[in-house]
Structures are given as structure tokens and as C-alpha cells.
Design brief:
NagB/RpiA_transferase-like, Ribose5P_isomerase_type_A, binds D-4-phosphoerythronic acid, Ribose-5-phosphate isomerase, 6-stranded mixed β-sheet, EC 5.3.1.6, alpha/beta, ribose-5-phosphate isomerase activity, 8 helices, about 240 residues
Length: about 240
């Protein structure tokens, strides 16, 4: 239906614009939009893809690459990538993003920084002016299990009284990330969300926090598929 079509539209447009024949080391993000990225890369044909290596941003991303019979690589082997394409939970007018809805933001940020070009793809629901306008689940924050209670308490006192541990649905207890850590979802008021880089710095200094789902000043472009079949590009 409309949302899946708009995800595919964003993904195909981004691949057509940014995954060129000369690009050999490709980062694949996580979530429900990136399967359309892989689909479009496969459509470029075996000849170009057999000379490429694909780096995952987590178990789901790795499965996508393996199931597409694309060559799997490791970021420790390829510390610099030509291009990484990833999803987003929300993107503001300055290309800052909330990520981590899929609890993959640590490896995603490593591959975003490793990429010469980093591009986001999403459906129209993610296209906002200010972070938090549509994404109400809060900022996903990866924490070491040992420290989660103290981090929660700290967040409660610096603007996120509703910060909470992300509990699993198909498993008893909290969600455990691909890095064996917990996720806290921390909603902050607009006054703090309108300066995401400042909030990111503040949060990164809290002991026990491994990575924060705010991606600031990193993207070259963001592509949003719209219900009417058009694509909005922010850069
Ligand atoms: O966890 C993430 O950051 C993923 O990129 C994900 O949140 C993107 O969401 P999607 O399923 O709407 O593509």
C-alpha cells in the first residue's frame, strides 16, 4: 500500500543517484526500507555487483546481504566505504535524524561515519521540520546493561521523565541489541529537540551510554517517497 510504495520509491531513487558503477564498497543499513535498496542494487546486475563488497549494520542487514547472494564484507576490513544507504525514523529540515527504531543505531553510525557518502531513505511519515514532530517514541539510546538504571535516572532529571527501557515483544525482558546492550527510548521536549547536536553531545557524556540515535550533520541527502508517487529530496 501507500507506505511500502513510498519506501520503494525513496530507495530506488537514492540507489540510482548514489550507487554508481565505480562504487565498490557499499554499506547497507537496517529497517524495513533498506530491503528496497538491496532490491534496486540487485537490479544493477551481476556484472557490476560481483566486483562489490557489502557491509552490514547489524544481523538483519547481514541477512539481507547473504540472502541476496551479495558478497559480505566486514567494516574492520573496509574502514572506508564508498557509500552507505540507511533508513531513518525522522529527519528534520537540516538533515538531522532520529535513528534506532530498529535498535541498530550503533553499527549504523559507525558505517555512516565510514562512508564517503551517507544517504537516508524513508517514507513520507519521516519527513519533518523539527525532530519529535512525528516520531513520538523518543530518542533511542543504546546503554550497557550494567548502567541502565543510573542512565534512566539521569535522563529523568535532564528533560525526559518518561524515558523507559525498551521491552521486547517476542522475548521476555528488554530488547537486546546486536551488540548485547539495552535500548532506552527517551522523549525530550521540542525546546531540546530543536537543537539535536547540542542534545547529542550532552547525552554522549552520560556514563554507560554507548550510542545515541541522533545523527547530526552526517547525511549528504535524504530521499522521501510521497503518496502521490513523487520523491522529496533534502540536502
Ligand atoms: O533503526 C534504524 O535507525 C533504522 O534505520 C530504522 O529505524 C528505519 O526505519 P524503517 O523501518 O522505517 O526504514
Amino acid at each position: 500500500e501507500g507506505i511500502e510504495k513510498s519506501k520503494r520509491l525513496a530507495a530506488w531513487t537514492a540507489v540510482d543517484n548514489h550507487v554508481l558503477p565505480e562504487h565498490k564498497i557499499i554499506g547497507i543499513g537496517s529497517g524495513s526500507t533498506v530491503p528496497y535498496v538491496v532490491e534496486r542494487i540487485l537490479a544493477q546486475g551481476r556484472a557490476v555487483n560481483k566486483n562489490r563488497v557489502f557491509i552490514p549494520t547489524g544481523f538483519q542487514s547481514k541477512q539481507l546481504i547473504v540472502e541476496a547472494h551479495l558478497t559480505l564484507g566486514d567494516v574492520s576490513q573496509y574502514p572506508v566505504l564508498d557509500v552507505t544507504i540507511d533508513g531513518a525514523d525522522e529527519v528534520d529540515r537540516s538533515l538531522n535524524a532520529i535513528k534506532g527504531g530498529g535498535a541498530c543505531q550503533l553499527q549504523e553510525k559507525v558505517l555512516a561515519e565510514a562512508a564517503t557518502t551517507w544517504v537516508m531513505v524513508a517514507d513520507y511519515r519521516k519527513n519533518s521540520e523539527i525532530l519529535g514532530a512525528n516520531w513520538k517514541q523518543g530518542i533511542p539510546i543504546e546503554v550497557v546493561p550494567f548502567a541502565y538504571a543510573g542512565v534512566l535516572n539521569h535522563l529523568h532529571h535532564i528533560g525526559s521523565p518518561n524515558a523507559a527501557l525498551r521491552m521486547a515483544k517476542m522475548k521476555a525482558g528488554p530488547v537486546v541489541s546486536d551488540n548485547a546492550n539495552f535500548i532506552i527510548d527517551a522523549p525530550f521536549p521540542e525546546s531540546q529537540m530543536k537543537e539535536p547536536a547540542k542534545l547529542l553531545t550532552q547525552l554522549k557524556l552520560i556514563t554507560g551510554i554507548v550510542e545515541v540515535g541522533l545523527f547530526c550533520n552526517m547525511a549528504k541527502a535524504a530521499y522521501f517517497g510521497n503518496e502521490d508517487g513523487t520523491v522529496t529530496v533534502k540536502w
